[in-house]
């Protein structure tokens, strides 16, 4: 019975050859080495006894971002696919089948009470009062408001058209999601 450590060793040796022949980048090879090290708790197991739940548990315990977890998952799947290749047949079953990166729990957005919004509006002065009023009345994101131009405001139709947003790096680009491009009605009092 083939042990996982033997599969990992052969996989990394093949990837090292690829790196030396410039078929993959050296940094990509180093990342693969890191990803394979996290399989250490299973390395002495025969591959025939490893189950998807074993890999899922390892992945779930990683204290990294969801994006990084997905890099681990993809690297492990790549290794399994490589080992299942008909020319190698090191592994007969895909023990990564069904392993997924858990989606983050939905975050409940706490909407401030109307009285609190009124208090903030009463305390705000000048342009800040208008900014807070527009944000509170429309629900648009701060980056969307920062990117809003007069062309996006239609006083006659009482609408605001959101087509862009200011990003974290202060560049202007499309809104956060595809549904972010939208027309928002505003009250005649706000217009």
Q: Your description of this structure?
A:
The model has no long low-confidence stretch (mean pLDDT 92). Helix 1 packs antiparallel against helix 2 and helix 5 runs antiparallel to helix 6 (127-138). It is elongated and about 75 Å long. A hairpin with a 4-residue loop joins strand 1 and strand 2 (159-162). The chain has 191 residues and is mainly alpha-helical. It has a three-stranded antiparallel β-sheet, with no helix packed on it. Strands 3-4 form a two-stranded antiparallel sheet. It has seven helices and five strands, in the order αααααααβββββ. The termini are far apart.
Strand content: 5-15%
Largest sheet properties: 3 strands, antiparallel
Helix and strand run: HHHHHHHEEEEE
Shape: elongated
Helix count, DSSP H or I runs of 4 or more residues: 7
Our measurement of the CA-to-CA distance between the termini, rounded to an integer number of angstroms, reads 74 Å
What value does the Rg take, in angstroms?
26 Å
How many β-strand stretches? 5
- Strand arrangement, largest sheet? 1-2-5
Q: Determine the structural class based on helices, strands and strand pairing.
A: mainly alpha
Measured as a percent range, the helix fraction is 40-55%
Runs in which pLDDT lies below 50 for 5 or more consecutive residues are none
Overall pLDDT confidence: 92
């Amino acid at each position: 019975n083939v042990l996982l450590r033997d599969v990992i060793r052969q996989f990394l040796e093949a990837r090292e050859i690829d790196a030396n022949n410039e078929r993959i980048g050296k940094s990509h090879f180093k990342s693969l080495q890191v990803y394979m090290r996290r399989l250490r708790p299973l390395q002495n197991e025969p591959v025939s006894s490893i189950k998807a739940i074993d890999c899922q548990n390892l992945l779930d315990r990683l204290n990294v971002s969801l994006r990084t977890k997905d890099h681990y998952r993809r690297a492990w799947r790549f290794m399994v696919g490589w080992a299942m290749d008909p020319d190698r047949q090191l592994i007969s079953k895909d023990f990564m089948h069904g392993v997924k990166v858990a989606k983050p729990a939905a975050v409940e957005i706490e909407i401030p009470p109307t009285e609190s919004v009124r208090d903030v509006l009463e305390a705000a002065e000048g342009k800040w009062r208008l900014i807070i009023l527009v944000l509170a009345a429309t629900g648009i994101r701060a980056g969307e408001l920062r990117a809003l131009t007069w062309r996006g405001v239609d006083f006659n139709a009482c609408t605001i058209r959101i087509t862009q947003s200011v990003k974290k790096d202060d560049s202007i680009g499309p809104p956060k999601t595809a549904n972010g491009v939208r027309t928002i009605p505003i009250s005649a009092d706000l217009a």
